[in-house]
Amino acid sequence: MHDANANRAAHTFAPLTASAVLVNPVGLHARPSVKLTQCAKGFTAKIEIALAAEGPWTDAKSPVKVMRVKAPQGATLHFRVAGSDGDAALAAMLALVHDGFGEA
Amino acid sequence: MGEIHLTGHPASPGLAIGPVAVLTTEVASRATKGDPAQEAAALKAAIEGAAAELAELIATVHGEAAEILEFQVAMLGDDALSEGAYEAVADGAAADEAWRAALDVEISGYRAADEEYFRARAADLVDIRDRVLARLNGADAVAKISGDSVVMGDDISPSTFLAVDWTRGGAIALAGGSPSSHVAMLARSRGAPMVVGLGPLPWNGQPPSLALVDGDTGTVIFDPKPETRRLFEDRMAAANAAQIAADAGRLKPAVTADGRRITVLVNIAAPEDVEGLDPAICDGIGLVRTEFLFEGSRGLPGEDAQYQVYRRILEWAAGRPVTIRTLDAGGDKPIAGLTDDGERNPFLGLRGIRLSLARPEVFRVQLRALCRATVHGTLKVMLPMVAVPSELDRANAMLDAEFAALKAEGIVCARPPLGIMVEVPAAALRAEDFDAAFYSIGSNDLTQYTMAAARDIGAVADLNDAGDPAVLALMARTVEAGRKRGVEVSLCGDAAADTRLTNTLLATGLTTLSVSPIAVARLKAAIAGVTA
Predict the structure, then answer these.
(1) What is the 3-state secondary structure (H, E, C) of B247-301?
(2) Nearest CB to A91 within list B68, B118, B341
(3) B348-358 pLDDT, tens per residue?
(4) Does B513 have pLDDT greater than 50?
(5) How close does chain A come to B203, measured CA to CA in Å?
(6) What's the 3-state SS for A70-104?
(7) Fewest CB atoms within 10 Å of the CB: A54, A87, B400, B401?
(8) Tens-place pLDDT, residues A33-52
(9) pTM to 2 decimals?
């Protein structure tokens, strides 16, 4: 990711990463997946999730792909975000997870 | 042939007796096949048609059922679901075969999951698959099933479930299925008994004609002997009598064992929550959250849209008091375009009344809508996250101004009384200094701010105890302030529904508790056991 950092001035954004533990019952299931993808689609940034810091990374704007991750309760969800509104996107994603998607 | 007993797993409680209706799984195959472009167009039309069908169905249901269907719409609207099918169509496959194959890969992925919950989602994918197939093949998506039947099959889709009128006493008995399936959740909320995991059904050809379903123990009896049936019907009659007694208690006023009348209110998070709910179960609404209005993707709600929603809730309450909380955004409830997402510690940041005062152009719209709704019932308005009296004073001044402006415009309105939530320890400690028309204790935030412990952080969750003497002392102080000033004090957090705390809460002098509708019967029963 050194290139991305070097090219920041050329309107590319260094990816931001963060992680949070899934606290809601039964993990990233149907309703939370829909909430997560709807929230993600509200940002222009590229947003990806993974169950490990090194990936594999999944497009957080696709409910089909997010459901394929099958993240259980207690799993650590890693986020990788890149884009002009990346800070806000990452904060919104983390808030959703911390809040247990409104069902914790 | 003798009676057959099968044991599976209980998925939804209750007893039912009825004629057996077997779900058929045959799907007609597509009559004609066109060139790849025609097949791709047919697939696209079928997917879009299925999504439109689901959207229509969503409009007729509420709550959990709507959320389940919204999940299906979200999946159906995602290109990642159909890309495999389109690739196969481009290589010459028929649209229906391509779609079936692509979905079957997805479905087998769910069936192979480690977690029961994710395995149970296979039924939703089957539902999506068959809905699109039915459109491609021109068949009816859902066969008609009579609502008094015991529906049998390998599994049942949410669409099929929702097409049946379950008020007629039917039940579900499945060879496969899961207690975690969406249908099981729906069955529990609709009161339809359901047993899953019965295993291969032990007959070929002619199915049994009658079944007894025991959703409490997870057993099903087919073609019962007359004596078995009579004993089962006796159990059903006893269960019905017990249910009627519990429902009757729900409608009675809450009174402690030593004769104190306790006001029981309900918390409402969305207007759908009151649909199908009898207002007679409560003494009013203690908390209407308004965040739902701001959560949509359509941007901030206008004055008229808000007014219509508030009016609908007041009309439901039919004169009973209704307390609507102004927007409580921020903290754990971010709202795009309104809250500051960059805060390092949003629970200590610009949230609740702080945000409303910082964004007067948004707050004014809500205050105007509330003034207009006040003429349709007994409305009280409360402010969240108040810490100092000046916040209430500023909100009162804004409310006065909006009320005066509406009157000047000749718009029908009234000025509702303005009270505060007591959820910041600073407000509890000097509650009597606030010129509030009432106090409502928000036990969730009051507990987390007093104990400095969040309940969703496992390592400190045991500190997050609403029954801690420090939290109870702040509640008692608020009750005392209300008594001195002659205004009502209620409690609307989760502690109100925790029946282990009912005795303790009433001991602080509280006489008004507000809980979610589902907790009303349990709370009233707990109150009936309280002695001084």
Answers:
(1) HHHHHCCEECCCCCEEEEEEEECCHHHHCCCCHHHCCCEEEECCHHHHCCCCCCC
(2) B341
(3) 999 999 999 99
(4) yes
(5) 36
(6) CCCCCCEEEEEEECCCHHHHHHHHHHHHHCHHHCC
(7) A54
(8) 998 998 898 889 999 999 98
(9) 0.52
